[in-house]
Amino acid sequence: MRKILAVALVALATPSAASAYTAESLLHGINNIVLNDLDASAETQGTVYVGNNYNGSGGNVNPDGMPDFDLGSGIAGSLVVGGDINAVVNLNNGSAQIGGAVNGTLNNNGSGAMQVGVAGIPTADITSLLQNLSTDLASNPDTPGGTANTTDPNNVNFVSGSGDANGIQFFNISGSVLAGGTLTGITAPAGVTTIVNVGGTGPTIGINANQLGPDVLVNFYEASTLTINTAFNYSILAPFANVVQNGGGIFGTLVSYNLDQNAEVRPYAATTIPYGGILPAQQVPAPAGLALILGGLAGITVLARRKA
Q1: Which of 52, 68, 75, 166 has the smallest number of Cβ neighbours within 10 A?
Q2: Overall pTM surpassing 0.90 (yes/no)
Q3: What is the 3-state secondary structure (H, E, C) of 234-251?
Q4: What is the pLDDT averaged over residues 173-198?
């Protein structure tokens, strides 16, 4: 029994047992994150992660100076797809790792490696991590010191204070605030991240929001559908939503469950990173084999006690 326990503990202590990423590192390193299926007809300037299949008429993936993102266990790339490529995709620099097959075309126009049939892409862990993040962020009330001006649809703006103990300013609004009008700005002191929690199961972004806000995250924690009809230059977290992206594209990170992409997703040109803010500390997802190991140990313990 002691030998078995020792082996299990060694296995859990190995580097492969720990995740190489956090929610924050994912949002910093990937600007188009689709947890399930992507249907793309527009370019991503930046890096792309797709949990299941990459479909559609295609569209270029141009890392735009962003490095390959690292998911651990040798899985790294500017394009990582857990399922199949069913489209014509041009990758301009960077590496590609595909968990399934290339049923369409994947043109690698740079010097990076391209691998197909890659095992171990942590799709379930990433989905769980980002969905839990959205739910956790939504539990935060408005942070004192901030002002949300939402009564005049032509002058919607948010002014952050110094934030909470982590330097994060939270606002909570209804999705109707973003349906139309003009967002004149989200401002904050240097070093303060602004997170706007948006309620509603089927919101539409129709507001004009042309300011760049790398330290802003808009969290659609209730949305099962989200339609983006205008240019929107703030990062979006919508990990439960079927997102339809129209309009003039966005700057920052876009997280969706399924994405119908008809406009570009771009990093902020000055920094070549998408989301630049911080997030509250979050638990690293447990390795996939942890539950099996612990369950096996519990069973062995019960049997040992019975024999005793």
Answers
A1: 166
A2: no
A3: EEEEEEEEEEEECCCCEE
A4: 97
The identity of residue 284, as a single letter, is V
Q: Are 58 and 74 in contact (CB under 8 A)?
A: no
DSSP codes of every residue in 20-73: S--HHHHHHH-SEEESS-EEESS-EES-EEESS-EESS-EEEE-TTPPPEE-ST
Estimate the crossing angle of helix 2-13 against helix 290-307, to 10 degrees: 170
Question: Do residues 101 and 66 make contact, with C-beta atoms less than 8 angstroms apart?
Answer: no
Q: How far apart are CA 205 and CA 185, in angstroms?
A: 15
> Does the structure show a pLDDT above 70 at 288?
no
Nearest to 266 by CA among 34, 56, 42, 72: 42
With beta carbons less than 8 A apart as the criterion, state whether 58 and 88 touch.
yes
User: Which H or E run contains 131?
Assistant: helix 123-138
